[in-house]
Amino acid sequence: MTREFSAxxxxxxxxxxxxxxxxxxxxxxxxxxxxxDRLVPLAEGFALAAKFIQEAGRxxxxxxxxxxxxxxxxxxxxxxxxxxHYVKTLSEWGIFDGTTNPVARSNVCPEIDPPSExxxxxxxxxxxxxxxxxxxxxxxxxxxxxxxxxxVERTVRYRxxxxxxxxxxxxxxxxxxxxxxxxxxxxxxxxxxxxQAYSVxxxxxxxxxxxxxxxxxxxxxxxxxxxxxxxxxxxxMDCRRxxxxxxx
Length: 248
Description:
This protein is of the alpha+beta class. The protein is built from five helices and 13 strands. The strands form two sheets. A seven-stranded mixed β-sheet has the order 1-2-3-8-12-9-10, with helices on one face. A six-stranded mixed β-sheet has the order 11-6-5-7-4-13, with helices on one face. Helix 4 packs parallel to helix 5.
């Protein structure tokens, strides 16, 4: 279920070429999350991330996760084109080998005041630590099942925005995406320090049963009024256990 990326001192859950499903620091290392005070265009964000990581005395291969913001939801073809552009920098950094990508990622689209181009919201990297406490970042996941086929075929309750349809989307994302990914590392909701949800729909009716009772909100919930990156996906989440976070 997981593979080692020794050049970055973390292990990851293999997924698709554009991102992994999650990253967890190796023993003797921790993940630090760095959030930008303002959205930074993609190229500038990569440059600032490289500067921050190198000034921390770490190689660029320590880059293990990022959180992006895009102007609007992509078509399937547009999403693939964006991803092919995105991984070029990871190839230059010695992270993406052309097939396997260890870097976890969230990429969502703010509904109000979106950026004019794909931009960085945050990134994470590994650094040495004397602590024995674990840290991990789980990639953004929406209500689309893994596997082959189009998003139309794989999306739970496709285009169903009824209260029950949204509830099922939330349930699937919470369990089949977040919980299964954390379990691959041996973690669960009790280990998280941060949980984020992305939707432009009111999912309050599903909060208690699908999130609170499952222990997902032990540290609260950050709700971003944003859409998942592909048209007709309606709900996305990510989560993490990170003991060191800074804003730059």
